[in-house]
Design goal:
The structure is a single chain. By secondary structure, the protein is mostly beta strands. The protein has 1 helix and 10 strands. The strands form 2 sheets. Strands 3-2-1-5-8-7 form a 6-stranded mixed β-sheet, with no helix packed on it. It has a 4-stranded mixed β-sheet with strand order 4-10-9-6, with no helix packed on it. A hairpin with a 7-residue loop joins strand 2 and strand 3. The longest helix is centred in the first third of the chain and has 11 residues. It is globular, with a radius of gyration of 17 Å.
């Protein structure tokens, strides 16, 4: 796909890690309605309500996603990512590439941030294994991620060899 040199430069800066945009997402924990299972709820922008329970989200190259876990409902429920649904509860492990954790869940200023880059997705790594989907989970309690997932390949048709990784935000 032909693109302008200005667009190419902007995309190169984003994919090189010299320029990023941060998307804030507030996380809360509440019962799923069953009376016996807590789950993560996500709020975006000016949403101050209950949020969306266990959503599937498309994360785009060139963006940082900052999950604010400072709400007191998160106490005892750290937010982690894994390539395995339900993470360590299903014999998976925490995904840590380009993930920053700060503070303790439920405490003021606590957050988990993931920056989506070609490295995050495993493109061009020595192993050559691509990461298409991450699942969020609580390492202390199974089932809290529900069916929620983070898709790192929202556009299966992008090219990485000489062409721009041109992806739009879909959150």
């Amino acid at each position: 796909l032909p693109i302008s040199s200005a667009t190419q430069t902007a995309l190169d800066n984003i994919t090189a890690g010299t320029s990023t945009l941060t998307i804030p997402i507030t996380v809360k924990v509440a019962d799923d309605g069953s009376g016996s299972q807590n789950v993560f709820y996500f709020l975006n922008g000016t949403d101050s309500g209950a949020g969306t329970r266990s959503p599937a989200m498309d994360l785009q190259v060139g963006f940082k996603y900052k999950f604010d876990i400072s709400d007191s409902s998160n106490t005892g429920h750290p937010l982690k990512f894994s390539t395995t649904k339900d993470g360590t509860h299903s014999s998976g492990s925490a995904f840590t590439t380009n993930v920053v954790e700060s503070g303790t869940a439920g405490s003021s200023g606590a957050y988990v941030e993931i920056e989506v880059t070609p490295e995050t997705m495993g493109i061009g790594t020595a192993t050559g294994s691509a990461v298409e989907t991450l699942y969020y989970y609580c390492p202390n309690h199974s089932g809290m991620g529900g069916n929620g997932r983070l898709s790192l390949y929202p556009n299966q048709d992008f090219a990485t060899q000489g062409d721009a990784i041109a992806l739009a935000i879909a959150l």
